[in-house]
Write a structure and sequence with these properties.
mainly alpha
């Protein structure tokens, strides 16, 4: 009976928790309502191949129509190519950067590398896009897939570096010391002891890098050309001429693709946390 007795402190705590839950639900609804609306209207029949404010009927034809659109398909192919190279480069450089942030012998260099990583994240993408566009113009470097990859990759390198850094912090150095006592060289220890433990974090970072590169709009808007156009830039440009429901269908597919990739990254992280090497006694 004492547990069910009314107490002002407990009632106030429940009221606060309920209010916070409602506030959280309202914030999530506000943030995701436009995305849900876009997904809903991707099934709208529309009028004369144009999107309408009211639902005129339900259809699935806009999804194959989006795939049969040659310009849209080329933009998807360009996004896939750019995201692949960006993710590959970020895995190679970001993994080494994340490891060096934790394990480099010099504290000053560790601090400098950490500062550089955070700078790559906090610099606004619009500043990066404008700066690179001016740089390519002054140096007369033509815009291409390579210049677009070079513009997107620095930010995702920082993402991979931070993910790998978090994993390196959890490694037990006594395992590496035991390998050294048994005669292993530093290169063999890195290859057979360290890298297998870092592999899930590197994979998760690579997936995150691929997803962020595929969805990048701001930097891509400055560095794309009529011949090389990514999907986010194509979708944004098509909104200026009366969007077709096929554009909504393509956007919905991109959203589902992003969720799937983030879900895979989350599963890898979860697997990593469960299979962390147990510390030596």
């Amino acid at each position: 009976m004492s547990a069910l007795r009314f107490t002002p402190g407990r009632w106030g705590e429940r009221t606060t928790n309920a209010a916070l839950l409602l506030w959280y639900a309202a914030a999530v609804l506000f943030l995701f309502a436009p995305i849900f609306a876009a997904i809903l209207y991707s099934f709208n029949l529309g009028v004369v191949n144009k999107q309408t404010a009211t639902i005129t009927g339900w259809t699935l034809k806009w999804f194959p129509a989006a795939w049969n659109d040659l310009s849209l398909r080329r933009s998807v192919e360009a996004s896939l190519v750019v995201a692949f190279w960006s993710a590959l480069i970020s895995i190679l450089i970001g993994s080494a950067l994340g490891y060096a942030i934790v394990r480099h012998p010099s504290a000053r260099i560790r601090a400098g590398l950490a500062g550089l990583t955070y700078v790559l994240l906090i610099v606004p993408e619009s500043v990066i896009g404008i700066s690179l566009l001016l740089f390519y113009g002054v140096t007369r470097i033509p815009l291409s897939t390579a210049t677009l990859v070079a513009g997107i990759t620095p930010m995702v390198i920082a993402v991979v570096a931070l993910i790998v850094r978090a994993r390196v912090l959890t490694l037990d150095r006594r395992v590496e010391e035991a390998a050294a006592d048994l005669g292993s060289t530093r290169l063999k220890t890195l290859w057979f002891i360290v890298l297998p433990q870092l592999a899930p974090a590197i994979a998760a970072g690579g997936i995150m890098a691929y997803t962020f590169s595929f969805d990048n709009l701001v930097v891509s808007a400055f560095l794309t050309t009529p011949q090389i156009n990514t999907l986010p830039v194509y979708l944004y440009g098509s909104l200026q001429y009366g969007p077709s429901p096929a554009v909504y269908a393509a956007a919905s597919a991109v959203f589902v693709f992003t969720l799937a990739m983030l879900g895979v990254a989350g599963l890898i992280f979860r697997w990593t946390s469960r299979h962390t090497a147990a510390p030596l006694p």
